[in-house]
Amino acid sequence: MTQSEQSPSTGPRFDPELRASLAVVGGTFPPTVTPDLIGFMRKSYASRPLDETMRGRAVSHREVTIEGHHQDPIVLSLFSPLRATSRRPAIVYAHSGGLMFGDRFNALDATLDWVERLGAILICTEYRLAPEFADPYAREDMYATLEWVARHADDLGIDRRRLLVAGASSGGGLAAGLALAARDRDGPAIRGQLLSYPMLDDRGIAPSTRQFDGVGVWDRVSNETGWRAYLRDAYRSAEVSPYAVPARAEDLHGLPPAFVDVGDCEIFRDEAVTYANRLWSAGVNAELHVWPGAFHACDIFAPHTAMAKAMLRARFSWVQRMLAD
Question: CA 218 to CA 102: how far, in whole Å?
Fold first, then answer.
């Protein structure tokens, strides 16, 4: 039986159109990622050539090298609208990949719409990956990016008042951690945080964590693989920083407004909903979408489906509202 024919035994059912896509997805992104598959995933989940993604876009691209964690060099890609004539809003984006794979060009088909249609400057970071680079490398590379963007806003033509952080999956967790760190360190002001199906909790305590073993995309074992690689000996211990695992943060007061979305057929469902609830309890505005029948990252793997298109529209609408003058 292929995973497209399977259904979670105790959880909600996959959307029929999305379920049909899983047979194709499994060839490049197996539902269960174990440590021996990290090398394979770095090849199979690599982005297509940038010139293909950029073709026909009214967007310019340039790379800069900045100092990341420990002042080591890291590369940023800056995507800007071709016809910008005034200071532009900016979005610092963290890519997906379970903290172990992926690159700064992941999901550009969707995020370049923020540049081309909304006039934003998009900054994508090649943060360093586990297991070679454990915590705090990824989150501190992202924080170094945020500080660099704020510090060079005048040179970049960026309006400091309209700065968002965003990310998907592990990148969603990094974006949430950025918002927490910026608050606690008196860092750059952030107008909003976009958390797409975010990876927020290493403890595996949410009921949805065990509802999708071996089916869909990114199951319980995959999640354990990613968190173990990134946190090493601190995994599931009291030593974990909330900037690495935002669900561990005790205080969510004073954070910027959030957009949180997640499928109801993925392991991150309950931790994402819990995080949104905690934001509300802390007096933070949050827009929450739980997409029925959606598997993890279906907007990346099945962008042609009705569900994926609805997800992208909802995010675009929120970004548009947040970046308005």
Answer: 14
Q: Which residues contact 130 (CB under 8 A, 6 or more apart)?
A: 99, 100, 137, 138, 226, 229, 230
Tokens of 271: 């931790």
Q: For 32-323, CATH number?
A: 3.40.50.1820
Q: Residue 218 — left, alpha, or beta (φ > 0 → left; ψ -120 to 50 → alpha)?
A: left
Over the chain, what is the mean pLDDT? 95
Instruction: Provide the token pair at 272.
Output: 């994402």
Whole-angstrom Cα distance, residue 115 to residue 91?
9
pLDDT of residue 3: 46
Domain boundaries, the chain: 32-323
| Percent of the chain scoring above 90 in pLDDT | 93
CA 140 distance to own-chain centroid: 15
